[in-house]
Design brief:
The structure is a homodimer.
Chain A lengths: L10 H20 L12 H7 L11 H7 L23 H11 L9 H16 L7 E5 L2 H16 L3 H4 L6 E6 L4 H9 L7 E4 L9 H14 L2 E8 L11 H11 L2 E5 L13 H4 L7 E5 L11 E5 L2 H6 L34 H36 L4 E3 L7 E6 L7 H17 L6 E5 L2 E7 L7 H20 L4
Parallel strand pairs in A: 2-3, 2-4, 4-5, 5-6
Antiparallel strand pairs in A: 1-7, 6-7, 8-9, 9-11, 10-11
Helix pairs in contact in A: 4-13, 5-13, 6-8, 13-15, 14-15
Chain lengths: ~475, ~475
């Protein structure tokens, strides 16, 4: 029996405590539809964390039980904020197994790479990318994008890994609706955010291809080296999908790297409703997406995929002597994650992704996504039918942007403040969690539906709350 | 009751399956001292993963149970490979809670930041860094180092985030024993690996301060801009601790950023035996270290700490409109991780670290580390007393490097091959897991002790196995 000095002193009572926490956790997950969506952390609970550095041992499990209701709220069917996945209860089973194995999946020959390679193979198939492509499971799209842009940088500039890069040489292109993680990747990689040209959008918030071509041509004239075009499959503000085939064609003729940010939207390939508009992903040199969003895998897990294995590997492989592989033994194995990304120590994220795909199958995952898209269409109709709600953007996917506009002569600043207050009160009252964004400089109530638990009735409750609170606030003379 | 289409169809049988997996996982952890250290994945198990993309649902739990014995082996007391923590069984309890909460800890106002801020506060105290410093929990030292070096880069070069950097301008310094993640950070950040000057070591494998000063001075003469010095607290090959006070003093007088790579070694501040040699960490501008190594938190969790909060924040903060914070509601909160690092979506790693520190207290964690250092000293004596074993490096901390040298006239190439084969056979026979490295161009058997379960008897078994297999191989005429 294990006898390390940090092992349980009494295995029976440890086992009992673990089963108790599991039951509490399952109870929480089972009743996730009930009660408030989000609750602020009570001061009494905050105080339990204000403690001096623990010198001696003490049992943390009671406090852990106390925190269960004070997460973000994204497991609740009326959580519509940002783009959070809802996760699934069964993820807990693979996490239990992972915790007991305590695997470092950075390399070597064990079951970790076996599982990860299989997940990557399935993902290449889901995304329509080449079978002999490569990839890596990462924490999420932010890191995936840094990896993808680094590979793009290094395949373009010989010796960039050794010599660094020349200031202002490389430039990239993405639409004004693209996610901030693209800009961040340019910052991290030393290219500078100004090297990422912001391409205007058409009325559907999709990248304008003519503007893209003009910008590329102008940059070439000015002596810059165009590096890449980043297309968006599901823009974070309102869900727009760029014309990916159109971008692919320009990237090909201009000899540019074609990256797709499919953070949540790429998962739409699992379903039928958005499938055709996403099929251009198959032509990408690289793709970043998250499992913890529309795939509904628990936090955190994302993925980066590449068309070409060797190009991917060439940007990261460089093992130190103490990490040299062997033909046999534990230092063997044909897939060392450290050759494909920046993390040397890595948890066993692959297991929960594999188990999730295996348990549900892609058909059920696709149906769940299509149901979300239909719910967004339902909400779009509900907004159109309400005199006091004004739509601010189309609903191409699963996100609605609209706002409450009372029959009063309010300027934009007042409407912004009113709608922001509506959102905060709906959150504070625990009714639902919408978030806000700006669409054409107007503050919008933003309803993102990436939750397999959401029903039409949840959207009805939301709409009613917006109308009620909007009217309540407009009666208030402080406006 | 939850009714999303990915929720369990039958909660009672789901609950039973989760408890069953928990019992199997606890059984595995309880018997971790028994049996083989590492076993290759059997082909029958590999075959279970060679499946087509799952279209329909199926239960993954039987296969998950099957993989439990085929991890890396780092939970076993005779795992001495690389620098892997052994973890603790109780980590499973916080992982169960985390999985049920499915928190995205990238920002907003919920219990995630409350726990993370407390962990960071405790870590600043453990490391002797300023109370008003800052930090972030990350996946591990590799990402922590990229974050730290980016902050160093951006505080030195005005507008580097926007404009990128000038090729060949910035240079940094670290010893020839430092970890490859420093070089990788220079690669990722666009500085280029050649900008990282490799400083020779003294006979104790510590950075040579005179050489450091000369290199800085030479670079200044050549027109380069010295940026940073990276000190190592626990070199990966054999555990050397650089003269951190000496580096701090040079960094101060030369106006350089002082970063410490304390991946595993910084944890030595919890104990008594290495404490004084590590106290120079308190003067670092930034520190990277792992919880999943000598702290014994389960994979994966690392940390980056900074002396100055504003400098840290200035290198990452730049929120998009849809992420704008509020005074109230869920978009409130005073610690958004996205302002301090590259990840926007993040799991709730903070919980397991908090629970671990709370459960064990720093005294027990320190004792466990000191016990490992004493075990390395015990092994050093055992090696000295064996005629056929030759030590290749001193043992300043918890790592022994030595090799089997039979009474034969073998050249270095043959001795390298012999010792590599010894290590592989010990792994393949399941006796123990040593790894190898090169010390002064000679292949060493490398014994790293970062495992709270290791006993003197485990080292005796290891030494005997090396001697037995070494002699067995030298009788073999193929040598």
């Amino acid at each position: 029996m294990s006898k390390g000095d940090l092992d349980p002193k009494n295995w029976d009572s440890f086992r009992a405590e673990a089963h108790k926490m599991l039951d509490k956790s399952i109870d929480k997950m089972k009743s996730v539809n009930e009660g408030r969506v989000w609750s602020p952390v009570p001061n009494t609970l905050r105080d339990k964390f204000k403690a001096n550095l623990p010198i001696n041992e003490s049992n943390p499990n009671e406090i852990i039980s106390d925190i269960l209701p004070y997460g973000v709220g994204n497991t609740h069917p009326r959580f519509f904020g940002w783009v959070h996945g809802a996760g699934t209860p069964s993820g807990i089973i693979s996490d239990i197994a992972s915790a007991s194995m305590n695997v470092n999946a950075g390399g070597r020959d064990h079951v970790g790479p076996v599982v990860e390679k299989q997940v990557l193979k399935w993902c290449l198939e889901i995304m329509g990318m080449p079978k002999d492509g490569s990839g890596l499971i990462v924490s999420g799209t932010s890191i995936a994008t840094i990896i993808a842009m680094k590979v793009a940088r290094d395949q373009k500039i010989k010796n960039s890994r050794k010599k660094g890069i020349i200031q202002g040489q490389l430039v990239g292109y993405t639409s004004e609706q693209s996610h901030s993680c693209i800009k961040q990747a340019f910052d991290v990689l030393g290219l500078g955010t100004e090297a990422l040209r912001v391409v205007p959008c058409n009325d559907n918030f999709e990248i304008d291809l003519d503007s893209l071509k003009k910008l590329i041509s102008k940059d070439r004239e000015m002596g810059f080296t165009p590096l890449c075009v980043v297309g968006t499959a599901g823009a974070v503000n309102m869900g727009a999908i760029d014309d990916l085939e159109g971008i692919a064609s320009i990237a090909k003729s201009e000899n540019l790297w074609f990256h797709v940010d499919g953070a949540f939207g790429a998962a739409g390939l699992l379903g039928k409703l958005a499938h055709d508009r996403l099929s251009g992903i198959s032509q990408a040199d690289s793709l970043a997406f998250d499992f913890h969003k529309w795939f509904q895998v628990n936090y955190e897990a994302g993925c980066v995929l590449f068309k070409d294995n060797m190009t991917h590997r060439a940007s990261f492989s460089d093992r130190a002597e103490y990490l040299r592989g062997s033909e046999r033994g534990l230092a063997g194995g044909d897939f060392w994650a450290v050759d494909y990304g920046p993390e040397l120590s890595r948890g066993f994220r692959a297991l929960k992704v594999w188990a999730h795909l295996k348990e549900h199958g892609v058909e059920a995952l696709g149906n769940s996504i299509d149901r979300n898209i239909r719910l967004a269409q339902y909400l779009e109709k509900r907004v159109k039918n309400e005199d006091l709600l004004v739509s601010l953007a189309p609903t191409p996917l699963n996100i609605n942007c609209f706002r409450f506009v009372p029959n009063l002569n309010l300027d934009d600043a007042k409407l912004d403040a009113l709608n922001e207050e509506i959102v905060i009160l709906i959150q504070e009252r625990g009714i639902a969690v919408p978030s806000t964004t700006k669409i054409n400089n107007q503050l919008a109530i933003r309803i993102n539906i990436t939750n397999h638990r959401t029903q039409e009735s949840d959207l009805d409750i939301l709409v009613q709350a917006i109308l009620d609170i909007g009217q309540e606030l407009t009666k208030n003379k402080t406006l």
